[in-house]
Protein: Glutathione S-transferase family protein
Organism: Acidimangrovimonas pyrenivorans
Amino acid sequence: MTDLSAFPITRRWPPRDAYAIQLYSFPTPNGIKIAVMLEECGLAYDAHTVSFKRQDQMTPEFLSLNPNNKIPAIIDPDGPEGTPFPLFESGAILIYLAEKTGKFLPQAPAQRYQVLQWLMFQMGGIGPMFGQLGYFYHTEAGLAIEDKRPLQRYADETARILKVLEGQLQGRDWIAGDYSIADMAIGPWLRVLRDIYHGEGLVGWRDLKNVPAYLDRFLARPAVARSLNVPRRDG
């Protein structure tokens, strides 16, 4: 059996299958990204719920794997050179899994960097801006703030980003050619904006054509449907 006992996080979340990729996560957009990739690739994984209510992400065990106290993080028992390998940051995990499996990231340099640029666009723009919009528009703490200038700032920037996506998706089913890790990164954030934050009226969603259709295509994928509650919220 693969021995993962050297990783302190396994004392809090013992592996159920030590040969499977250990996923420490919660079904937020960043967490769903990795569940989608694991499902799309057919990789065996063992999903452990990192509960924000319990502040699991602040425990010494979780911090031993990700000192930045954010989900998701993984341990691959069959990492480089066949040794267990820990990794955090969702974008890095997507690239790692794509390279491990040879899937959803083109080998040809021109196409590869097209995918990577849109992955970075999600990480540097979509995630931070949509996330801040969600705080000011959807959470109790954010709604209690009387000054609405921060909300307007993030709403305007989210609307601008959506227009960038709308243009890129003209004549395309997927963001950078074939379905890729860039779509796995972008899709969950569009879903949370529409279906969780219900921010359509704030950011011009109803004026868009390509982006809503793109999100529907993404959510129609069976692997995506299986990933939306991974790990279980009550786990």
User: Anything to note?
Assistant: The chain has two domains: 9-104, 109-221. The radius of gyration is 18 Å. Residues 217 and 233 are 25 Å apart (CA to CA).
